[in-house]
Amino acid sequence: xxxxxxxxxxxxxxxxxxxxxxxxxxxxxxxxxxxxxxxxxxxxxxxxxxxxxxxxxxxxxxxxxxxxxxxxxxxxxxxxxxxxxxxxxxxxxxxxxxxxxxxxxxxxxxxxxxxxxxxxxxxxxxxxxxxxxxxxxxxxxxxxxxxxxxxxxxxxxxxxxxxxxxxxxxxxxxxxxxxxxxxxxxxxxxxxxxxxxxxxxxxxxxxxxxxxxxxxxxxxxxxxxxxxxxxxxxxxxxxxxxxxxxxxxxxxxxxxxxxxxxxxxxxxxxxxxxxxxxxxxxxxxxxxxxxxxxxxxxxxxxxxxxxxxxx
Length: 311
Fold this sequence. Notes:
Structural class: alpha/beta
Number of strands: 8
Distance between the termini: 25 Å
Strand order of the largest sheet: 2-1-5-8
Oligomer: single chain
Largest sheet: 4 strands, parallel
Number of domains: 2
Order of helices and strands: EHEHEEHHEEEHEHHHHHHHH
Strand content: 5-15%
Shape: elongated
């Protein structure tokens, strides 16, 4: 598989674009993820002409609005320039399958950015550029480098990137009712690990050649919203037991008992998700099932990323 295009704050891949002339290179991003993602760096503060090094900026609340201004020179207001820059880059962002932002940045922070009001501050802001970029690209999977230290959030983001990548691939090959139905079938178990998939299945039940554009738009919007919720251990257990049902005629009693025990141990948090999935893969190699073989649930992304080893 070719590398997937992902946007990123330039400082995270080692570019010296920070206000102090430095960077915030992230070893996991430039190491493990760079093997699979083609990073497209953006630094809106530099790109709107603030330069490097540069005076620091921060978010302030003025009345009902939040503005991005200079710390030492409040007259330097770059709010509109940052929003306009996100609009200017919309055509480039449309080609991406994900975006990793810099935590806490008044331009690029995804959430919990410090906002100053009179003599107090509170962390409930969003970077001006990031906010506009996400508004213009509501389907795009977005995450902060700081939150990716959490195994569940990291896996969730990368899973969404791969799903969105496969969606775009499907659109390139041609959107048809059968292609859309097959896409859903291959992702049904992934959806099940996040939420109930039946509403999405019912949506596709009425798809025709005449309404497919509208149905597809509703489907991908609902799908990406659903996948933003981190899959719970309880939901994974439900999926694992559902998959086990496809082996009920093929498993010997001792194999069935072993598999039930492994799933129970995962339920109780004693082993990671990779263990029951590896055992299921072993059994399906001996007893193949076309539906399970086509499903992305047990292989949602390259195994080299080792994401489910910590879930």
